[in-house]
Specification:
Helix content is about 45%, strand content about 20%. The protein contains 11 helices and 13 strands. Strand 1 (about 50) and strand 2 form a beta hairpin. Keywords: DNA-binding, Transcription, Transcription regulation.
Length: about 300
């Protein structure tokens, strides 16, 4: 027996003095209201209503039970409201500050369609790590090496002028012996200022004779893009970013660089919602490939996911 539903019918009928009016107020057919009240009477072993006349009157037992029935219905309604508020709690998540606002808005909208109410906190990689560590957010999209990543974003070089070939080699950026050729720098934006991206690129540049100053970290993505738009310098970025800034993008031949991302979260439920439910939406926001996760390239099954205890 659904005690709450039966008590709801009992309270409605008692309040209207009629099975017909009470059932209508409760949004159920009269036959259903009668059956639920009869089941409640059978359960308690006593009549709630005196049905000997046309008017519906509470019996003394019914009068004694009405207060408790009302309290039970009110508690059930309050519990439903609390559950709705709990479902709507914001899930605060640290996201790359390199994500364009329109794609972040699309991610938040996608979450709402899945009843996941995201509250985004844009930050650079170090900032996202700090926000997760200090529990200022419930989860974070954190930078990880590509071989450990759930989402991977290819990186290449972007220029204001088209590239002569489909691949660009680092050695072509070397300054000529006469020094007449200007040194073209590779600009690293803050999102890529992480050891697993910055260090391999720096080593590869040194191995082909680039000057130390030809691989430079910039204060912001805006600064890096502005420099690439106004000089021969090259921006290390994703194809999506190159398109957004109106730059020509080319694959780097010397080494395959990919941004890698995973989710760090304190609660397993938050982790699974972001990794599974919103996987394609996060991919689009990051500029990663939208598709099923590749079993061969993602996290190994015997390794705990980021944000989970080892």
């Amino acid at each position: 027996m659904d005690v709450v539903a039966a008590c709801r019918a009992f309270v409605a009928v008692s309040g209207h003095g009629s099975f017909t009016s009470g059932a209508a107020a409760a949004g159920i057919p009269q036959s259903v209201a009668s059956r639920r009240i009869a089941t409640l009477e059978e359960h308690f072993g006593a009549r709630l209503f005196d049905r000997s006349s046309r008017a519906v009157r509470l019996t003394p037992f019914g009068q004694d039970m009405l207060r408790t029935a009302r309290r039970l219905v009110d508690l059930a309604d309050a519990m439903t409201e609390d559950a709705e508020r709990a479902r709507l709690r914001p899930l605060r998540i640290a996201v790359p500050d390199s994500c364009p606002p329109n794609r972040l808005a699309a991610l938040v909208a996608a979450g709402r369609r899945q009843r996941i109410h995201l509250e985004v906190r844009p930050a650079d990689p170090a900032g996202r790590e700090r926000l997760c560590r200090t529990l200022e957010v419930s989860a974070g999209i954190v930078a990880v090496p590509a071989e450990m990543a759930v989402w991977r974003v290819p990186l290449g070089l972007a220029s204001r002028t088209p590239f002569p070939a489909q691949l660009v080699f680092l050695e072509t950026l070397r300054t000529g012996r006469t020094g007449a050729q200007a040194r073209r720098r590779i600009l690293i934006q803050p999102e890529d200022d992480v050891a697993h991206l910055r260090d391999p690129l720096t080593r590869a540049g040194q191995s082909v004779g680039l000057a130390l100053t030809q691989v430079a970290v910039t204060p912001s993505l805006v600064d890096a893009a502005a420099q690439a738009l106004s000089s021969p310098d090259l921006l290390l970025c994703s194809p999506q970013q190159a398109e957004d800034f109106g730059l020509h993008w080319c694959t780097l031949a010397d080494l395959g660089l990919h941004r890698g991302y995973d989710i760090a979260a304190g609660a397993r439920e938050d982790l699974e919602q972001l990794r599974a439910v919103l996987h394609p939406d996060i991919a689009r926001c990051l500029g990663a490939h939208v598709g099923p996760r590749e079993s061969s390239g993602g996290r190994q099954s015997d390794m705990p996911p980021a944000g989970e205890p080892r």
